[in-house]
Amino acid sequence: MDYKIFDRMRDLSFGQGETEDGQYDMERIFRAVFAGEAADGKRHIYEMMECSFFGCSFAQKWLEVGFTVQEWELNPKETMHGGLIVTAVDMACGLLVRFFKRSMSAATVHLSVEFLRPLMCGEEFLVRAQINKYGTRIIFLTAEVLRKDDRETAATASGTFV
User: Fold this and answer.
1) How far is C-alpha 6 from the geometric centre of its chain's CA atoms?
2) In Å, what is the CA distance from 141 to each residue of 14, 28, 70, 77, 128?
3) What is the pLDDT of residues 85-135, one digit of tens each?
4) Are 67 and 124 in contact (CB under 8 A)?
5) How far is CA 127 from the centre of its chain?
6) What is the reported pTM?
7) Of 16, 30, 23, which Cα lies nearest the Cα of 98?
8) Quick one: pLDDT band at residue 50, thresholds 50, 70, 90?
C-alpha cells in the first residue's frame, strides 16, 4: 500500500463539485494506493494484514476495505484478536480521512469499538468507514465490521480524526 499518494493529491484537482468526477477520481486514487508498495520497503501492520480495496462512494463519503483473518492474528480463543479488529477499523477510517483531506496526515483522536461477533481464522470481513461530519479540522466517522459471506455485523465503531 502506498500512502504517499495522498500527499501528492494536494497538487491534483479532482471532483470539482461534480459527484461523477469525484467518484471516478476516488476509485482511481484508492486503486493506486492499494496497488502500490510502501516506498521504504518495511513491513507495516497494514501490509501484514493484507488490506484490499472493495468499494467507495464520493457522494456519501464511505470506503469499504476487505481483510482475511490470518493465523497470526488469532487470540488464545482462536478468534481474531480484538486489537487487530480495532486496527482494521482505524486503517479504513484513516484511509478515508486521508482521501478527503488530500493529505498523508490523519491522526486518530478517539476510536470506540463494540465487538458483537467473533471472526474466525480464514474468514473474510469488510470494514465500511463513513464520514458523518467533516468540520474545518475535525472529522467524525462511524464504521461497521461485516462478515463478508453473510454481511452480519461483527463490530461497530465511532471515531474522531484530525
Assistant:
1) 14
2) 22, 22, 27, 30, 10
3) 999 999 999 999 999 998 888 999 999 999 999 999 999 999 999 999 999
4) yes
5) 7
6) 0.91
7) 30
8) very high
